[in-house]
Design a protein that fits this description.
Elements lengths: L1 E2 L15 E8 L2 E7 L27 H4 L3 H4 L16 E3 L5 E3 L2 E12 L2 E10 L9 E13 L3 E13 L15 E6 L2 E6 L2 E12 L5 E11 L8 E11 L2 E10 L19 E10 L8 E14 L5 E14 L4 E12 L20 E12 L6 E12 L2 E14 L3 E13 L6 E14 L4 E10 L4 E13 L2 E11 L6 E11 L5
Antiparallel strand pairs: 1-28, 2-3, 3-6, 4-5, 6-7, 7-8, 8-9, 9-12, 10-11, 12-13, 13-14, 14-15, 15-16, 16-17, 17-18, 18-19, 19-20, 20-21, 21-22, 22-23, 23-24, 24-25, 25-26, 26-27, 27-28
């Protein structure tokens, strides 16, 4: 590996070993162990252009965290997830890209105790990450689910994050904001040690036997050694559906002091707590003749308030959709958006342009056209085009994916996202685009090649990730992975790494 932007850009080499084990405790209950795990063969993240005020939840790709993960991953609601496995062993850098944090060991017990009971218990220990200002950390997540009725369940979960080996004198050494919390004291701010964060959650799901009625709700409380005036989160969601259509209705609450540091709460740092309500509905019509299998109108309403009752967001949308017999889809919609900002913000760059101030109000209209071609064809395309107002200006957004299946050898795809943002004078304008061609080849039943190229104009970066995999015996692989980041102007290298990884699976 070589970091050409670091003060010392010397080539670094290293050798490491680790092991994984899978133990069948019972036919339906497994114990997975890992020591010094390496995820260098995992596919790099698909980059995004984020023009919103919120953090984007990128998908987990590391296999150890994916197996039997639903009990922990689905706890809570999209507005407040108590557990998000990407908080373990990954941390965001100044560009918003995720960098690895070394994991020392981990263990997971997951599966079914019997037809009524399911369990998932995870414990992971990370090493100190000096460059990121993080101490050694321990993460524990446990969930127990009881199934009842035809398709219903009740689950309890507990998530604990512990900062290890930190004292009040370590503010300079461990500078990551999750380690020391800024607390107001009079007219000044002090940094208070945050040794732990715990979240206790109960989830209820009810589904009728005919699948028409569905209810989901949860209640969650966080525990920390600071700011516990409003540490609650919860939601309730109802759905009715049949052949003629469906209706959704729900609401959720996130307290100002609800902190799930090993979870995902997108409103954290944006709202001083939130109360939101939403509803949407859809009617379905089935033409007797012609190429359309299903079509109908749809509408949605969403409103967000702060705990004192101030309206901060309102979204209205109406549209019409067409599902064709050949699996193609078409959707047109109109959206109205209102926002009253609760934090200073600029969607392009807060450091380069004038920012919108707290309390400023904006309202705009936009139109969307979305199309997905026949997915059964070798060549297929998906395209979304949106144009309309955007804060005090306009935005034209074109995004989509081209995909060609070269059977039986592989797949070629091109993903793109283009934004032409024009705000009022001084607030910025720019053509932001992301393009990502990708090649997946199956040369034989044991040799696979993947190459992924991404250019992101917003962060001024070109990324190349190439992976060779040889499965020389069942569950045993040789990986060769090359990653490099470039400056797009002259393709000079920022950093690069070449990794060889050998996996040997032994059945005992």
């Amino acid at each position: 590996a070589q970091d050409l932007e670091a003060p010392s850009s010397a080539l670094e080499t290293g050798l490491a070993a680790g092991f994984d084990a899978k133990i069948g405790v019972t036919p339906s209950l497994n114990l997975d162990l890992t020591v010094n795990p390496d995820f260098s063969q995992v596919e790099v993240d698909q980059q995004v252009i984020n023009l919103t005020r919120f953090e984007i939840q990128l998908p987990e790709r590391r296999q150890f965290f994916l197996e039997n993960s639903d009990l922990l991953d689905q706890a809570g609601f999209p507005s407040a997830r108590p557990f998000f496995s990407r908080r373990i062993g990954l941390v965001q850098d100044s560009l918003g890209l995720y960098q690895p944090v070394p994991i020392l060991y981990g263990a997971r017990l997951s599966g079914s105790l019997n037809p009524k009971w399911r369990v998932n218990v995870l414990n992971m220990q990370t090493r100190e990450a000096e460059a990121q200002g993080l101490p050694a950390q321990n993460f524990t997540a446990a969930a127990l689910q009881r199934n009842f009725g035809a398709q219903s369940s009740l689950a309890l979960s507990l998530v604990n994050k512990q900062n290890l080996g930190v004292t009040e004198a370590d503010t300079a050494r461990f500078f990551h904001p999750s380690v020391f919390q800024e607390i107001g004291q009079g007219d000044s701010l002090i940094r208070q040690l945050n040794p732990y964060n715990r979240v206790l959650t109960a989830d209820l799901e009810l589904l009728s036997q005919d699948n028409r009625w569905y209810h989901s709700s949860f209640i969650s409380r966080s525990f920390a050694n600071y700011a516990d005036a409003s540490p609650w989160s919860g939601s309730a969601f109802f759905r009715y559906q049949d052949r003629r259509g469906q209706v959704f209705l729900g609401g959720n609450l996130v307290g100002e002091d609800y902190f799930a540091e090993a979870g995902f709460v997108p409103s954290q740092g944006v709202y001083p707590g939130q109360i939101s309500v939403f509803t949407n509905g859809q009617l379905k019509f089935y033409p007797a003749n012609g190429p359309i299998a299903l079509m109908g109108p749809e509408a949605e309403v969403r409103q967000i308030y702060t705990p004192n009752g101030t309206l901060t967001d309102r979204d209205y949308g109406i549209g019409y959709f067409f599902n064709f017999l050949n699996t193609a889809r078409l959707r047109v919609s109109y959206n109205y958006t209102f926002q009253q900002l609760t934090r200073r913000f600029n969607p392009i760059s807060s450091s380069r342009f004038t920012v919108f101030e707290t309390g400023e109000r904006f309202a705009w209209h936009s139109f969307l056209l979305g199309y997905q071609s026949n997915s059964r064809r070798l060549l297929n395309v998906s395209l979304d085009a949106r144009y309309g107002g955007f804060y005090n200006g306009t935005n034209l957004n074109l995004s989509g994916r081209l995909n060609y299946r070269y059977q039986p050898y592989g797949n070629i795809s091109l993903q793109f996202d283009y934004n032409d943002v024009k705000l009022a004078e001084g607030y910025g304008e720019g053509r932001l685009f992301l393009i990502g061609p990708r090649l997946d080849l199956t040369l034989t039943d044991a040799i696979f090649v993947t190459a992924y190229f991404q250019y992101n104009s917003r962060i001024n970066n070109v990324n190349l990730n190439a992976r060779f995999q040889w499965r020389y015996r069942p569950a045993s692989d040789l990986f060769v992975v090359y990653t490099e980041n470039y400056l797009p102007q002259d393709f000079s290298s920022k950093n690069r790494a070449l990794v060889f990884k050998l996996v040997y699976w032994l059945n005992v």
